[in-house]
Amino acid sequence: MNQHILSRNNVNITGKGTQAMIFAPGFGCDQNMWRLTAPAFEKDYRIILFDYVGSGKSDYEAYIPDKYSNLHGYSRDLLDICAALDLKDAVFVGHSVGSTIGMLASIQEPKHFERLIMIGPSPCYLNDPPEYHGGFEKEDLAGLIDMMEMNYIGWANYLAQMIMRNPDRPELSKELEESFCSTNPLIARQFATATFFSDNREDLPKVTIPSLILQCAEDAIAPVEVGEYIHKRLQHSTLRFMQATGHCPHLSHPDETIRLIKEYLSSPMNQEDGRING
Length: 278
What we know:
CATH superfamily: Alpha/Beta hydrolase fold, catalytic domain
Shape: globular
Number of strands: 8
CATH architecture: 3-Layer(aba) Sandwich
């Protein structure tokens, strides 16, 4: 077991099961964001939690700007964790860009993964008419990145509210805002650029691992059109529409998130092409 890798990514392991279940955070978040969801699986799985280099309690000295200028640097770290723990046939749960990072890792080394569970995934955030509606114009995303540089705290407040989309529960947006603000602004800006300007649409047909797509309602980051686009291009995929609103159902609606994941994991492995309203 490579202790350097486990320390670098602040890997924490809990649970009583033998099959591994890996939880990958979204942009600007650390493993604490899974605290309402992951414990529900500790009885049946070996829970693997980690932080991206540059986030949470990871080793910030391990941050190499060139390596993390694109999502492949993060997927390489995920594969390093899998190798260090000798993981095979793990259940991978990724939120937002964490889903893409897991997808890229599964294409490179599928032996580590049995199923992919993607919460609010998006292979491309930019609109590319007429075939693709990612949700953002290039100018909008460029403006967000510029705002990070000019007014980081204002950016964190604005984006947190856009992502969470639960105005009646302001404490959720506040937690996300504080998570953003706990990250080095330079690292956050580079991760944001790598995330929001990535285009992994051509990677979708390369995925061989069965997958679940959890699509939230009123998701400003990954609209319904994106979930449907992924479902059509991912072989062996199941699409579930959630009642949860916003982009972080594992925080805002953990019970529904847990229920849908458990239903999927209890379904036969050969189930595919499912499209169900949750």
